[in-house]
Amino acid sequence: MSDSDDDVPQLSAATLAALQEFYDEQKMGQEQANDIYSVGAVEEDWGMSQFWYNEETATRLAEEAIQQAGKGGRIACLSCPSVYQRLRKGDLEGVSDVTAVVLEYDRRFSVYGDEFVFYDYNNPLALPENVCPPQSFDIVIADPPYLSEECLSKVAVSVNFLSKGKTLLCTGAIMEEHANKLMDLKMCSFLPKHSHNLANEFRCYTNYKSQLLS
């Protein structure tokens, strides 16, 4: 038997070109899939009071959700799509052990398929029972769109309906008294930041002890 390269099967130039094209398409498809889960993949609409977290804050909150949900846990991201996107990017430790849904008024987020739930805080219990049965989420992360007692009180109804117990609220520092009164939440030391600096100071509030946010 000859040891020359003539005995090794060779692909034609056309086949090699087709194979390379296939690999390029596969790579592009994977990159596009990753892009839709990038924080801020859906552009902010300030008219809808949308202000996305920066990467550092989205990461910290996503890590907190994973830790608190535990293995096999469910996470509800209520009006905080940045956290959902950071979770679904899939590169955080323990993320494969949890599932998450995003509850949003903005139907552009329907790009996330069955994990998108249309949510209008004015109808706090108008939730699909097949995705959001009562007390079915190990942790609910909520970021109400408006800094008002009226908005927070309605969001609180949704949170209490969905959560098994743990709640993480992100809202303005001026809402501390209402967060405590309506949801029995305490302010954390962690300061959430947004991709665009906001005039209002934002804070995190929980009804449990948190190491990552303390």
Put the structure in a nutshell.
This protein has 214 residues and is α/β, with parallel strands linked by helices. The chain has helices at residues 13-35, 55-69, 81-88, 149-162, 176-183, and strands at 74-78, 99-104, 116-118, 137-142, 163-172, 186-187, 202-206.
Can you describe what's shown?
The relative contact order is 0.14. With about 210 residues, this protein is α/β, with parallel strands linked by helices. It has helices at about 15-35, 55-70, 80-90, 150-160, 175-185; strands spanning about 75-80, 100-105, 115-120, 135-140, 165-170, 185, 200-205. The chain is built from 5 helices and 7 strands. The protein has a 7-stranded mixed beta sheet with strand order 3-2-1-4-5-7-6, sandwiched between helices.
Task: Detail the topology: elements first, then pairings.
Layout: H1 13-35, H2 55-69, E1 74-78, H3 81-88, E2 99-104, E3 116-118, E4 137-142, H4 149-162, E5 163-172, H5 176-183, E6 186-187, E7 202-206
Parallel strand pairs: 1-2, 1-4, 2-3, 4-5
Antiparallel strand pairs: 5-7, 6-7
Average pLDDT reading: 89
Number of strands: 7
Strand order across the biggest sheet? 3-2-1-4-5-7-6
How far apart are the termini?
71 Å
Low-confidence stretches: 28-33
Biggest beta sheet summary:
7 strands, mixed
Give the overall shape.
Answer: globular
Approximately how much helix is present in the residues? 25-40%
Secondary structure class reads alpha/beta
Q: Beta-sheet strand percentage?
A: 15-25%
* Secondary structure tally, helices: 5
From N to C, what is the helix and strand string? HHEHEEEHEHEE
Radius of gyration: 22 Å
